[in-house]
Amino acid sequence: MTTITTRTVTYPADALTMIGHLALPTGAGRRPAVLVGPEGTGLSDVERRRADALAELGYVALAFDLHGGRYLGDPEEMLARCMPLLADPDRMRGIGHAALDVLRAEPRADPDRIAAVGYGTGGAIALELGRHGVDLRAIGTVNALTTGRPGEAARIRCPVWAGVGSEDPIMAPAQRDAFTAEMQAAGVDWRLAVYGGALHAFHHPPVGHPVRPGVGHHPQHAQRAWRDIVALLAECLPVTE
């Protein structure tokens, strides 16, 4: 296993002090970089481990924060914060840009070779960065089939990969259709993977607190979605010595 280095980074965003997790690959040179956005509950060890796994593959990875260092295990508290956030593209972009600035400022990160990967709310933020015209090499999302303001998807300058469970009641078929129609109309290079039998947040291991109805882990599809994301990065943001 490749030796990596990790550290906590703090930065301001959304009137909060965010606490992110930065993972660096071995070596001294600049490497391609990846933003990793968490589910609506907030940054947890799940996203930290994914950032570490990306660093092991040779990427500089920043798992960014949503809630000022808090993890919102209470579904009602999570919804009370995330629903207004998801309805406000400018707030989402502000959170994304703040994390992106941290990643770009890291000396090991190549500021011209960055991708964004996100889950749920973190995936919606990744998409909003694309709709804002940020120069990303790829956008990968799971459980984040959000649509943007009319016409803004035309600003997306990179391939978009999206994964969703076929039985996800939160990302219902109508929402899936609206997302793909938006991407197609904007001329985006897009792909949608539908994982049969999977619920919302199927990629996330079981948690020790209540969850919303329609949420459930699917171990096989979780592994498949991760492999699909790694393949997206290998295609669009290859690690080269």
Structure description:
The chain is an alpha/beta fold and about 240 residues long. It has six helices and eight strands. The longest helix has 18 residues, at about 220-235. The model has no long low-confidence stretch (mean pLDDT about 95). The two termini are about 15 Å apart. The protein has helices at about 45-55, 75-85, 90-105, 120-130, 175-185, 220-235; strands at about 5-15, 15-25, 30-35, 60-65, 110-120, 140, 160-165, 190-195. Helix 3 (about 90-105) crosses helix 4. It has an eight-stranded mixed sheet, sandwiched between helices. About 35% of the residues lie in helices and about 25% in strands.
What is the strand and helix layout of this fold?
Elements: E1 4-13, E2 16-25, E3 31-37, H1 45-56, E4 60-63, H2 75-86, H3 89-105, E5 109-119, H4 121-131, E6 139-142, E7 160-165, H5 173-185, E8 190-195, H6 219-236
Parallel strand pairs: 3-4, 3-5, 5-6, 6-7, 7-8
Antiparallel strand pairs: 1-2, 2-4
Helix pairs in contact: 3-4
Keywords: Hydrolase
Pfam families: DLH (PF01738)
GO molecular function, one term: hydrolase activity
Task: Provide keyphrases for this structure.
241 residues, hydrolase, eight-stranded mixed sheet, 34% helix, alpha/beta, 8 strands, globular
